[in-house]
Specification:
The protein is of the alpha/beta class. The chain contains 12 helices and 15 strands. It has 2 domains: about 240 residues, Aspartate Aminotransferase, domain 2 (3-Layer(aba) Sandwich), CATH 3.40.640; about 90 residues, Aspartate Aminotransferase, domain 1 (Alpha-Beta Complex). Bound molecules: pyridoxal-5'-phosphate. The site of pyridoxal-5'-phosphate has 15 residues, from helix 4.
């Protein structure tokens, strides 16, 4: 694989030429069931007719006009995001990390605006992932991503996962808020307990802190609710969205209450491409489907169906699968063997998955899958597990 691209990714040697719903077809004709969905991006699968139609129309209209002018598609998308969530206001960006940058800036500016500019620090959690910009690698706290890029951006204090006492102990006169993914994605599909999120909300209220959620991966219906925090009955002050919002088109959004965003006055932030007509048109088309009556209920139902099968698979292959965990159609399989062995064996069975931290293999199918696709995925996973468990079986027989 000789290529002029930066060698920053460990790419599989496969190139796809066609996509149909949850299927990807490689240049050699191999047909893969895509339970990676471009890392939770393809919320509606490949080539969804409504997205294709929308893109065709948007392609014939102005693609870009800049934020020097009104953009009706973006105004409509913002209004719909507000109506579907806790938020009053939305800022559009082009990626998850940029949505987080806006979220972090909004939280800092809130306190500065109220006369406390020294309150700029955010408390974060071990296992977090918030993106690859200088600020978001500092927020994520993973030394592998931080080292070699100069002094890390100041202002992030990391505490152990879901440890409320540690959060309390970390609060100082410089703390602006708390930042977390309700379901950690890259970190290994760890779900923050709902009681923890409720207690954290109460703590933030008591101490005048902003609760900032990174719903870049778990938001936009991935867990069966529009935002994952709804499972806990908790509303944040600020939330970042991206991945699933564009269904494959790059778009990010920072959502905030009017109160939390009060410092974000004219000129305080900006983006050349953010919320351009093309991206906003696609975002609206994704919401047409995700917010349609019954759609999220089907995600919940399919998630339960997938979970049942994964739990049964764990029973049958206890030497391979250590734990299954997640919410909705955001599931992780923690393995006893190296997670990449299971992902590779699954790929040989023509099932695409994504690796995560904590030795987890992630299943992030399009939200549009049905039982037949899940049955197919489980059959492929079973074959992969059988292949990997074979040596142990022989040992047991001997
Ligand atoms: C993917 C991801 C990001 C970063 O998004 P990019 O679009 O890659 O910048 C941030 N937070 C979470 C939780 C993510 O999963």
């Amino acid at each position: 694989m000789n290529s002029a691209l930066y060698p920053t990714y460990a790419r599989a040697d496969i190139a796809f030429v066609r996509g149909e719903g949850p299927w990807l077809i490689a240049d050699n004709g191999d047909r893969y069931l895509d339970f990676s969905a471009g890392v939770a991006v393809l919320s509606l699968g490949h080539g969804h007719p409504h997205l294709v139609e929308t893109l065709k129309h948007a392609a014939a209209a102005p693609w870009h006009v800049s934020n020097l002018f009104r953009i009706p598609q973006a105004e409509r998308l913002a209004q719909r995001l507000v109506e579907a969530s806790f938020a009053d206001l939305v800022f559009f960006a082009n990626s998850g990390a940029e949505a987080l940058e806006c979220a972090i800036k909004t939280a800092r500016k809130y306190h500065a605006h109220l006369g406390a500019p020294q309150r700029f620090r955010l408390i974060t959690f071990e296992g977090a992932f918030h993106g690859r910009t200088l600020a978001t690698i500092a927020a994520g706290g993973n030394p592998k991503y931080i080292e070699g890029f100069g002094p890390p951006v100041a202002g992030f204090d990391q505490v152990p996962f879901a440890d409320l006492a540690a959060v309390e102990a970390a609060i100082t006169s410089e703390t602006a808020g708390v930042l977390l993914e309700p379901v950690q994605g890259e970190g290994g599909l760890r779900v923050f307990p709902h009681e923890f999120l409720r207690a954290l909300r109460a703590l933030c209220d008591a101490r005048g802190l902003l609760l900032v959620l990174d719903e870049v991966q778990c938001g936009v219906g991935r867990t069966g609710r529009f935002l994952a925090c709804e499972h806990a009955g908790v509303t944040p002050d600020i939330a970042a969205l991206a991945k699933g919002l564009g269904g494959g088109f790059p778009i990010g959004a920072c959502l905030a209450t009017r109160k939390a965003a009060q410092g974000m006055t004219a000129g305080s932030h900006g983006s050349t491409f953010g919320g351009n007509p093309l991206a906003a048109a696609i975002g609206n088309a994704v919401l047409d489907i995700v917010l349609a009556e019954g759609f999220l209920n089907r995600v919940v139902e399919n998630g339960e169906y997938l979970t049942q099968h994964l739990r049964a698979l764990k029973q049958r292959y206890p030497g391979v699968i250590a734990e299954v965990r997640g919410e909705g159609l955001m599931y992780g399989i923690k393995t006893h063997i190296p997670n990449s062995d299971l992902a590779t064996a699954a790929r040989e069975e023509k099932l695409l998955t994504v690796l995560a931290g904590d030795n987890v293999v992630r299943l992030l199918p399009p939200l549009t899958i049905d039982h037949a696709h899940i049955d197919d995925a489980v059959t492929k996973l079973e074959a992969a597990c059988a292949h990997l468990a074979a040596p142990t079986v022989r040992q047991g027989a001997a």
